[in-house]
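Per your request, structure below.
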């Protein structure tokens, strides 16, 4: 994926489609667009912080569409996704300790219990 002909050429084609400081959502957008056949790359400000230009606390993730031809289609998919309310990222309440757990965590941040809903099954 690092085989672009010239940096200048790819820079004017690549467009940012999505950014969020919730890295799980950024991954979700990237995977969704790839499943639709749209080539994307993910950029993370933490990479740049290694150089020392940004504070380490800043970890905004970004999804960039590699070809501007797909930008409009990607934009539509992203807005549809946002409207679909992402049930898998909803916050949930731990059945063991009753703490509210952010939807991006697979297990309870407090006691490491798995969400009860997942054990029941994937039926809607
Ligand atoms: Zn818990």
């Amino acid at each position: 994926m690092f085989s672009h002909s010239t940096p200048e050429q790819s820079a004017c084609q690549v467009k940012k489609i999505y950014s969020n400081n919730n890295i799980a959502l950024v991954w979700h957008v990237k995977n969704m667009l790839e499943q639709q056949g749209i080539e994307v790359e993910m950029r993370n400000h933490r990479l740049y912080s290694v150089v020392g230009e940004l504070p380490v606390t800043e970890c905004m993730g970004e999804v960039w569409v590699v070809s501007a031809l797909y930008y409009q289609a990607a934009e539509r998919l992203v807005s549809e996704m946002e409207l679909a309310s992402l049930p898998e990222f909803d916050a949930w309440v731990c059945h063991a300790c009753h703490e509210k757990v952010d939807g991006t965590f697979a297990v309870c941040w407090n006691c490491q219990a798995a969400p009860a809903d997942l054990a029941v099954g994937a039926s809607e």
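The chain has two domains: 7-84, 90-124.

Regards,
D.
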